[in-house]
Amino acid sequence: MRTAAVIGTGLIGTSAALALTSRGVTVHLSDSDPDAARTAAALGAGVAEPAEGPVDLAIIAVPPAHVAATIAEAQRSGLAHGYIDVAGVKGGPRRDLQALGADLSQYIGTHPMSGRERSGPLAATADLFEGRPWVLTPTPEAETEVLNLALELVALCRAVPVVMDADAHDRAVALVSHTPQLLSSMVAARLEHAEETAVRLCGQGIRDVTRIAASEPGMWLDILSANPGPVADVLAGVAEDLGETVQALRALQSADEDKRREGVAGIEDVLRRGNAGRVRVPGKHGAAPAAYEMVAVLIGDQPGELARVFADAGAAGVNIEDVRIEHSTGQQAGIVQIMVEPKAAPVLTAALREKGWSMRQ
Questions:
Q1: What's the pLDDT tens digit per position in 296-351?
Q2: Pairing state of beta strands 55-60 and 80-85?
Q3: What is the pLDDT of residues 52-81, one digit of tens each?
Q4: What are the Cα distances from residue 277, in Å, to 33, 90, 229, 280, 283?
Q5: How far apart are CA 309 and CA 300, in angstroms?
Q6: Is 327 exposed, middle or buried (0-12, 13-18, 19+ CB in 10 A)?
Q7: CA 351, CA 355: separation in Å to the nearest integer?
Q8: Any idea which of 89-103, 148-162, 223-237, 291-305 has the lowest mean pLDDT?
């Protein structure tokens, strides 16, 4: 690939453009908002000027509802030899393209499974897709040349290609992406009018659950409007669990011992099913989740503290598998939770204590 065009210079489009330009591809940028395209160009994502002739690949990074019309127009103008989109929904745009009579032999639907809470070109990074799955949903009509271009794009962005059926993809993202976004927003919405004394008690658990609730509502309206059925199907199952859990909790308030036992069984069931589902979430590098030991260290809120504890772990010969920070509300301190292989935990604990770190259980 020598040339590409990116239509839509938001987070995903600009990030793809940055990755391509960093690897020597000439990228032409356009957006319905010319200022966004100029901003992306100023960041080094390409040039905000049209190509003089057909480019190798056009990357359509617009909301799902606009994908088909944008590709059809680009095909009529002869913009590129191949076309892909990066929308979060795949079945609808493909059917819209068919209805418009677009050339499906030049098109492959794709979806990079990566993003951030922030949107727009200023949030873009060239490494956004590194190590992340990038779904491709080729139709039987798709030409091999276009598939190769799509695979080359994925490789240049250092992502991991995953081939799926378009409708299967939409059901999958409804489960693992779209429904979690709504649930996170619903939990966060409970905080909007909560008493200040309650909000001040927020800990790491509520931060984890509500992190993605900070996402841009307009972007998610576009995505959910394009995939309402599969999301509603997943939410219906969640609603059933919620109803049963509410009943179980009410039963725990009963004076009847049998009802209380039923309540305990209901709560235990949903918690155990949650354990079983959580185990299936892929761990480091996409492998099966590993059982790590946590080493908790109290650190002050000063520059260099994290670097120092990481350096001490490295000096002890311990590889850090994962890390989390639990902030102490209203305090100039926090707890760093360092995840390591079980056999490394006592080694790290002893080494950090020797260096004067305050350890926590």
A1: 998 888 888 889 999 999 999 999 988 888 776 556 778 888 989 899 999 999 99
A2: parallel
A3: 999 999 999 999 999 999 999 999 999 999
A4: 42, 26, 23, 5, 13
A5: 11
A6: middle
A7: 6
A8: 291-305
Sign of CA dihedral 206, 116, 330, 186: negative
Nearest CA among 175, 51, 44, 155 for reference residue 110: 155
d(CA 88, CA 174): 10
Backbone angles phi, psi at 246, to 5 degrees: -60, -45
Q: Which two tokens stand for residue 115?
A: 């993003």
Q: What is the mean pLDDT of residues 265-286?
A: 86
133-137 and 107-112 beta bridge pairing: antiparallel
Please give the pLDDT value at position 186.
96
Angle between helix 179-189 and helix 228-252 axes, rounded to 10 deg: 50
- pLDDT score of 34 more than 60: yes
Tokens of 183: 């649930």
Q: In what helix (H) or strand (E) does residue 231 lie, and over which residues does it extend?
A: helix 228-252
Instruction: Decide the pairing of beta strands 80-85 and 133-137.
Output: unpaired
Residue 105 has pLDDT above 70, yes or no: yes
Helix (H) or strand (E) holding 111: strand 107-112
* DSSP H or E run through 338: strand 333-340
Residue in this structure with the two tokens 């276009």, named with its chain if needed: 146
State pTM to two decimals: 0.78
User: Could you tell me the domains of the chain?
Assistant: 3-164 (3.40.50.720), 196-284 (no CATH), 293-360 (3.30.70.260)
